[in-house]
Design goal:
Elements: E1 2-7, E2 14-19, E3 22-28, H1 30-33, H2 43-52, E4 62-65, H3 69-83, H4 88-100, H5 105-112, E5 119-122, H6 125-134, E6 141-147, E7 154-162, E8 165-173, H7 178-188, H8 197-203, H9 212-218, E9 220-222, E10 228-230, H10 246-251, H11 265-293, E11 297-301, H12 308-317, E12 322-325, H13 331-346, H14 371-381, E13 386-387, H15 392-402, E14 407-410, E15 424-428, H16 435-443, E16 453-457, H17 461-464, E17 476-479, E18 514-520, H18 526-539, E19 543-548, H19 560-568, E20 574-577, E21 580-583
Parallel strand pairs: 1-4, 4-5, 6-11, 11-12, 14-20, 16-18
Antiparallel strand pairs: 1-2, 2-3, 6-7, 7-8, 9-10, 13-21, 14-15, 15-19, 16-19, 17-18, 20-21
Helix pairs in contact: 6-13, 7-11, 11-12, 15-18
Amino acid sequence: MNILGISSFYHDSAACLLQDGEIIAAVEEERFTRKKHDFNFPTHSIRWCLSQGRITPKDLDYVVFYDKPFIKFERILETYLMYAPSGIRQFIQAMPLWLKQKLWIPELIRKELAGYSGKILFTGHHESHAASAFYPSPFNDAAILTMDGVGEWETASFGTGSGSNIELQYYLRFPHSLGLFYSAFTYYAGFKANSGEYKLMGLAPYGRPRYFNLIMDNLLDLKNDGSFKLNMKYFGYCNGLRMTNARFERLFGGPPRKPETAITQKDMDIAASVQKVTEEIMLRMSCHVHAVTGKDKLCLAGGVSLNCVGNGRILREGPFKEIWIQPAGGDAGGALGAAMLVWHKYLGNRRSADEKSDKQKASLLGPSYSDAEIEEFLRMSGAPYHKLSSQDLPDKVAELLASGSVVGWFQGRLEFGPRALGSRSIIGDPRNPQMQSRMNLKIKYRESFRPFAPTVLKEEAGNWFELDRESPYMLLVAGVKEDRRLRCEDAQEGFAMLKLMRSVIPAVTHVDYSARIQTVKKEDNPIYYNMINSFYKKTGCPVIINTSFNVRGEPLVCTPRDAFGCFMRTGMDYLAMGNFLLDKKEQKQPEGNVFRQKSFELD
């Protein structure tokens, strides 16, 4: 049986194909269109998923959309009427897309899937998130918590999953939203809402939560169970084109930071404050979910579940023994959740969970390219290259990392979700104290304060980080072990903190001694594991830098052409693509080279 899940029209459009309940393919539309967070109907993703399953639209049994557009439209209408006439500009801007496209999804699906004659189903938005969290998890019985911006009316939900069934009993409703609350501060700090939230999280450790009480006293009424009401007098997203308004600006002593301008200590303190409030809400919610459900395992999804600092606190300080987080926690994962919901709940198919492994397949669910395809591209491009054996490549790359080189790593299937997990990664030596600034400024072309994540061999993680479990999807933050830290004076504030070496792996140690950790095991990604293991044997360090293979504002690279283009327009030293190794010094860069001209909208 073939089930196609679709998410689109808000951000991170995606498609997912299940065959007899197994995830065969899942990919975001942005990977093909090269438009970050592309919200358009995922035509390219659907086409690729069907090709991966070796089927055509007429072979599909069910197509399912990840939310209910008419209920979402009802929310938009009611919100406008509540605030009218002040929201007229926002309303007029939104209506054409709704009236021409978003309300006609069945017709659009049948047009795009010519030959499909089966049912088109619609799931609830948070039901899709919940399904994406529970069904691929290794738990047979668990509590489920979803948190995001907004679906139809709901902004958070919780309930339980058992066997093949999911039940969500409790909800928070719009406009009271933890995701939108965090996005409002993302906007105020000068970053792009629905895109730059991870920057706010990364900026927080540079500041102090001086505005915590101001936020708690004025912006929200937080209950012990984690539920809250926002003081909508300070927010503009219901009736304006901005996330915050003039009252918000007066409360915090000035207008939002203009994008691309200098980041001040105030911005850092704002980030620290809102991050502390968000973590407090996440902790209270999780404690309440545990008290109500009585479960000792928790599944998380929704955009807020990508706040890995909050996730780490839930794990360390919360009541749950185990947690599992959907790596495509945002709207892209809704396509996967909707498809799995049809297979298990709608059709009643039995589900078996294995506590030793999940069903997410390391989230390596996107396109891959054979050596023959890669070599054909390299020949057509006229790019000099060296072909190595699959046994020699990991050892050679480890040698290059140990000598201080930065390597683009393009291997196997593309990751589903926002994190690079060892298939489309830029990698480096974490022991090098200059590596963070070099990779940020010369390779990623992004802000110097941004931390890099480590990948560590699973069996060595506990020796280097304060982590007693796997973290395969880079969704948990934990501290660097005390015996790996270095003594340093912490008198500095702000970006002066960057100058201090805090551990023996300084390039992946944030200014608060934390790291966003990915653990890797051999069965999930053998070539990536072997390369890191070879680096370990050469250096005594089982950790490397792993950052996404892209530049700022660009989606994760998908094709060999994407990877080569990114390699050529950045300061990477080498590119390992399949069994081929490219040395930057050997590449030709004629004036006007297209690989140096491409630019992307900044986030």
